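During the second half of the funding period, the structural biology subgroup turned its attention to how the target accommodates small molecules. The most pressing case was (2S)-2-hydroxybutanedioic acid, which had performed well in the primary screen but for which no bound structure existed. We therefore specified the complex as follows and requested a full 3D prediction, including the ligand pose.
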Amino acid sequence: MKSIGKRTAALFFAALCAIAPAAPAQPRIVIKFSHVVAPDTPKGKAAEFFARRAEDLTRGAVKVEVYANSILYKDKDEMEALQLGVVQMLAPSLSKLTPLGLKEFEVFDLPYIFDTTALLHKVTQGPIGESLLAKLEAKGIKGMAFWDNGLKSFSANSPLLTPADFNGLKMRIQPSKVLESQMRALGALPHVTAFSDVSRALQTGIVDGTENPHSNFYTQRMHEVQKHITLTRHGYLGYVVIFNKRFWGNLPSRIRAQLEQAMREATVYANRIAAEENDNALARIRETGMTRIHEPTPAELAEFKKALLKTHREMAARIGKEIIDAIYRDTGFDPDKM
Ligand code: LMR
């Protein structure tokens, strides 16, 4: 067959491509990321940040669909959905792993255990954090990172100036035995409620008060149903970012490496914005003028710490003396000086 010129061959090939059906593109990998807070919170913003970076770094091979504000699943249901693989990613509060039987995570609920964010990060970003993430594997969960929210303050519809003011109050908590012990140490009655139901429970009087970082308090409009907040900053609320382990293991290794990079960047972002987001939320609460904000005096704070210290002693056996002592050692925390 007479050889045809190169140009003709190129034109012929171009024509073929134009009419041949495009090879089916690789199906996109879809990650459903469900969470229970508003989009304009540290976790909400970090989830969106991760979604953008995951799509960028995988050049569109992965699409992350973020479902905020419990629109897909509420507290308890979301963990079940992850373990069934109905959703692939969550970022539950560290106080919500108890139903999985992972009591060690409740160490983060101990009142006043972290004096500074730097000391907290020594734990979450060090060997203790690594060992906790590893414990998730046995539950079919791949633990990726810890994200901050912030320190919690108590709120109610009556002033909360001393522990005695909590006597008999029904106080909403997350499903953590340490938080139960904390409320009982104040003479309050702990009441576990899903986060999506808290504002309504406060409005209808099912509970009298609760505890939140300021960003959750404000974005759930709790200033409309809580007349008083005392800036006790008594406890830490943070998150563990997790994948369904089987889903994660089935991803191509290149995709896993790109998602790990997106997670590293999202963790730096989350922890960078958390404090500012909570400070801004407190300013917004103040502007509403609907909730009276009380800054405890040093004497009042000392009284709260004295009352809450018993939680450390009471919960040591449950959480595990080893992890508590490791955190005390790593952070220089001395419960007797609390
Ligand atoms: C709560 O239930 O109070 C928090 O865990 C909500 C959240 O995810 O910050």
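Two results from this model are relevant to the next phase. Residues 36-37, 43, 93, 96, 149, 174, 195, 216, 237 surround (2S)-2-hydroxybutanedioic acid (CB under 6 Å). The domain at 26-332 is CATH 3.40.190.170 (D-Maltodextrin-Binding Protein; domain 2).
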